[in-house]
Amino acid sequence: MTPSLSSAVGISNLPNQRHKIVSRKGTNFTIMVVGESGLGKTTFVNTLFSSLIRDYKKPEHRIQKQMDHTVQIDVVRADIEENGFKVRLTIVDTPGFGDFINNQDCWVPVVDFIDEQHFAHVKHEEKHDRNKKDDLRVHVCLYFIPATGHTLRPLDIEVMKQLSSRVNLIPVISKADTLTPLAMASFKDRIRDCIAYHNIQVYTPPINHDDTESAKITNDIMAAMPYSVLGSETDVQNAAGETVKGRQYLWGTVEVENEKHSDFVHLRNLIIRSHMSDLIESTEEIHYEKSRSLKLTQSGKTDDDPQVTAKKNLETLMKNEEESLRKKFTEQVRLEETRFRKWEQRLIAERDRLNKDLENQHKSVKALEEEVDELIAKKNASR
Ligand SMILES: Nc1nc2c(ncn2[C@@H]2O[C@H](COP(=O)(O)OP(=O)(O)OP(=O)(O)O)[C@@H](O)[C@H]2O)c(=O)[nH]1
Ligand SMILES: [Mg+2]
């Protein structure tokens, strides 16, 4: 099944994406937020967590970060589990830069963190230590762009370039409520042009041309990039009188999960639902492989080393096995879905038939009643 962009987030859908061997041990998924100070990164982290774990049965799994100026790289986690599938969701919240007169190299601690996680994993793989718990390789990095309405600043371009060579990068526009829809649309256009001009490699989902529906979803995802986001930890009343997370203004209310107000829901679906699996795979296959080769070169080994070749062959074998398992599972889900749809259709047809029968019975009862009334009237008249 191809997940629709607007469909609600359901943790129970995670197994559809990453259901392989990890199902027993669980899978790690790490998101990182980066950007200038005060753009709402920490607020966004809290908003995302509360929207994901809202109805979660175990209150201890609710994790809330203290709101304040973030001064060091902070890690927030939540273990999400449903139907036996575990996802260890981690968000790496970084201190905002831009507070200093000279912001040159402000991105160094952030990219160092990403590199260190990759290198630590190479080391741990070399030791065949499969029980290492703290795998913090970043699968997706959200870069917060201030909603200036102009275009990317040289600092944004520099940081995004540095990040995109190491990690799946998704640019987001912070505080969507501070721009009008028209200003937001042209701001997005200018950012897209700037990204293309500077050849910044932002995350692009793979397009499956054989599946027109999923190709359309992917195109829609790319058309909405960079995503505008909203953060709020406050409950407000929307126009329909419902209590929602949002921000209240004199002129009205902006709602975090209203698709007309920001791309929050689209972005959440993309990273947590529809493309989590691809973000994990591309991190392993592209970014981690790059770091691994670099580490090998640094340690004087090459990919031709017999030990390295044997390990690579084993990895390829395991990857292929995982891939075939994944395909088998997806196919099974698809068949079950089709079976369910058919059953649902039969049920609807049966309901319609019964309704029709009921209607006909109702009509004949009515006709009989009228006949009885007529007969009574005639009888009374003949008296
Ligand atoms: N208008 C508006 N304000 C927001 C939004 N998100 C966060 N804020 C406000 O922006 C301020 C800064 O938010 P933080 O989440 O601390 O920002 P940060 O990016 O984590 O800042 P640093 O930790 O210094 O890097 C707070 O007063 C938030 O209430 C938003 O979507 N719209
Ligand atoms: Mg912060």
Folded structure, characterized:
Helices cover 50% and strands 14% of the residues. It has 383 residues and is of the alpha/beta class. It has two domains: 11-301, Rossmann fold; 306-383. Helix 4 (108-126) packs across helix 9 (276-298). Mean pLDDT is 80; it is low at 1-23 and 55-62. Magnesium ion binds at residues 41-42, 70, 93. Residues 41-42, 70, 93 line the site of magnesium ion.
Q: Give the N-terminus to C-terminus distance in angstroms.
A: 74 Å
Residue windows where pLDDT falls under 50 for at least 5 positions: 1-23, 55-62
- Enumerate how many helices there are, as a single number: 10
Task: Describe the strand arrangement of the main beta sheet, using strand numbers.
Answer: 2-3-1-4-5-6
CATH architecture of the largest domain: 3-Layer(aba) Sandwich
Report the helical percentage. Answer: 40-55%
CATH topology of the largest domain: Rossmann fold
Labels describing this entry:
alpha/beta, extended, three-stranded antiparallel beta sheet, 383 residues, binds magnesium ion, Rossmann fold
Write the layout of secondary structure elements.
Elements: H1 14-17, H2 22-25, E1 27-35, H3 41-53, E2 74-82, E3 85-93, H4 108-126, E4 140-145, H5 154-164, E5 169-173, H6 181-197, H7 212-224, E6 227-228, E7 235-237, E8 243-249, E9 252-255, H8 264-274, H9 276-298, H10 306-382
Parallel strand pairs: 1-3, 1-4, 4-5, 5-6
Antiparallel strand pairs: 2-3, 7-8, 8-9
The structure holds guanosine-5'-triphosphate and magnesium ion (MG).
